Amino acid sequence: MKNLATQNVIGIIDYGLGNIFSIERAFEIIGVDTVVVKSPEMLKGIEKIVLPGVGNFNEGINNLNNLGFSDYIQRHVESNGFILGICLGMQLLLTSSSEGGGAKGLDIIKGKVRLLDFNTPCSVPHIGWNDLFGPDISQIKLFNEIETGSACYFVHSYHADIDIDIDIDIRKVYTEHCGNNILAAYNKGNVYAVQFHPEKSQNIGLKILKNFVRL
Amino acid sequence: MLKTRIIPIILLKKNSVVKTTSFKDERIVGDATACVKIFSSRMADEMIILDIDASIRGDININLIKRLSKQCFMPLTIGGGIKNMADVDSLFRAGADKISLNSVFYKNKNLIKQISEKYGSQAVVFSLDAYCKDSQYFSSSNSGCIIHDILAVDAAKMAVNYGAGEILLNSVERDGTMIGYDLQLIEKISKEVSVPVIAAGGCGCVDDFSQAVRAGASAVAAGSIFHWVGESIISIKRHMDDQGISVRLL
């Protein structure tokens, strides 16, 4: 039997990158207990994990590997645990990244992380509030009661490019920048990931975090 | 479609919020925590907090930043007095989403590179204080006290090459004057760099925001219009929306 005390706590992985403070604070606002974990042992018994992150892909994956989180996350996902990847966290779940010369990711979702590099004149990084859209939005529980056209806060130079030929059962949400559709979120089984920052997206972001807690 | 951001700039001196004119004549306009709370509740799109005497004091008030970021439920850029990676790490830990660099850039450009390698270039804002002399724009630092012989446009390009992901473009002469943004400056810089340019300095009425956007700014920042005029963010956004500019209306 699961320990009820830890079951409802959200585990936030601290691997030395990103604004953990804001994520803790956002969960605090919606009245959810969190625990910031610096080693995988501390995640035992926790059903829902948040993998945040702002920064370099190479540094991120190296830290996850060195701290032992990579193996833990793989097993967590295999045993149907829930995970929410945010920004770099979303990208680290993919196969590899072109950032830092093709570093390997967690390979939980098939795909590659690529630089936002468009043929049209366009400002990169993609920074600011942008709309969410896509037919899958109403089918993803994370976006329960979130309408198409809701704006969330993005700040990134790389984006997740999912290999849709392999992962046909993956659900996707998009945003648009300079005429190009960029993946804003994906979901496969109990794996959820968002490119934007729910912890910085005010009421809509809080709603998304609440939805994650209620999964 | 990406929305144009409206960003209040809060200048800190000790625990107070101040407002300057041409980077001088500071006047206290309120308490820092109260100010951050108000902008948060009024749903600004981002917030920039610059500690203007941190360089002179020689330290960064991390505890204050931490208290403020706790009240700020929106993307937060912090600047002022940053000297090295240790400062940067502690600011990210304290709740900063982006770091803004000005004076240190002219001494140690590699800091931008270091930050962008660790946190990504989207987390580094180059704060460019342009000073107009003989109808040319020069870069300046140390609260506009030191004018460098590097043209503003060259400083902007250099910062982007080193890894800056955004330019906070301020005009020393227009700061606090409320006579409108320096549109020529905005046009010049935003044409030459691929990263977003945040216009600052001189905004005095709602229409100034729209003009800065038409001149090429990706985002518009202001201080005086909020402190002195009490203009609300929502009324600015409605005006911009009427002008056909995409904003987040909520």
Describe the structure concisely.
With 215 residues, chain A is of the alpha/beta class. Helix content of chain A is 25%, strand content 30%.
Task: Describe this protein's structure.
The complex is a heterodimer of chains A (215) and B (250). With 215 residues, chain A is an alpha/beta fold. Chain A is built from six helices and twelve strands. In chain A, the strands form three sheets. A seven-stranded mixed beta sheet of chain A has the order 2-1-3-4-12-11-10, sandwiched between helices. In chain A, strands 5-6-9 form a three-stranded mixed beta sheet. In chain A, β10 and β11 form a beta hairpin. The longest helix of chain A has 13 residues, at 202-214. The radius of gyration of chain A is 16 Å and the shape is globular. In chain A, 51% of the residues are buried. The model of chain A has no long low-confidence stretch (mean pLDDT 92). In chain B, α1 (32-41) runs parallel beside α3 and α8 packs across α10 (233-242). The model of chain B has no long low-confidence stretch (mean pLDDT 94). With 250 residues, chain B is α/β, with parallel strands linked by helices. Chain B has an eight-stranded parallel β-barrel with strand order 1-4-5-6-7-10-11-12, surrounded by seven helices. Chain B has helices at residues 32-41, 54-57, 62-71, 85-93, 110-119, 152-162, 183-192, 206-214, 224-229, 233-242; strands at 5-13, 16-21, 24-31, 47-51, 76-79, 98-101, 124-133, 136-141, 146-151, 166-171, 197-200, 219-222. Chain B is 36% helix and 29% strand. Chain B has one domain: Aldolase class I (TIM Barrel). Chain A binds chain B through residues 17-22, 25-26, 29, 54-56, 59, 88, 121-131, 151, 153, 155-157, 176-177, 197, 200, 202, and chain B through 1-5, 43, 45, 66, 69-70, 73-75, 92-98, 117-123, 165-166, 194-196, 218-219, 248.
Q: Going across the biggest sheet of chain A, name each strand in turn.
A: 2-1-3-4-12-11-10
Structural class of chain A: alpha/beta
Unreliable parts of chain B: none
Using the 3D structure, state the CATH architecture of chain B: Alpha-Beta Barrel
Give a quick account of the main beta sheet of chain A: strands, pairing sense, barrel closure.
Answer: 7 strands, mixed
Name the helicity range of chain A: 10-25%
- Main CATH class of chain A: Alpha Beta
Number of strands of chain B: 12
- CATH architectural category of chain A: 3-Layer(aba) Sandwich
| Stretches with pLDDT under 50, minimum 5 residues of chain A | none
The oligomeric status of these chains comes to heterodimer
**Largest protein interface, residues of each chain:** A-B, 35 and 35 residues
SS field, number of helical segments of chain A? 6
Number of domains of chain A: 1
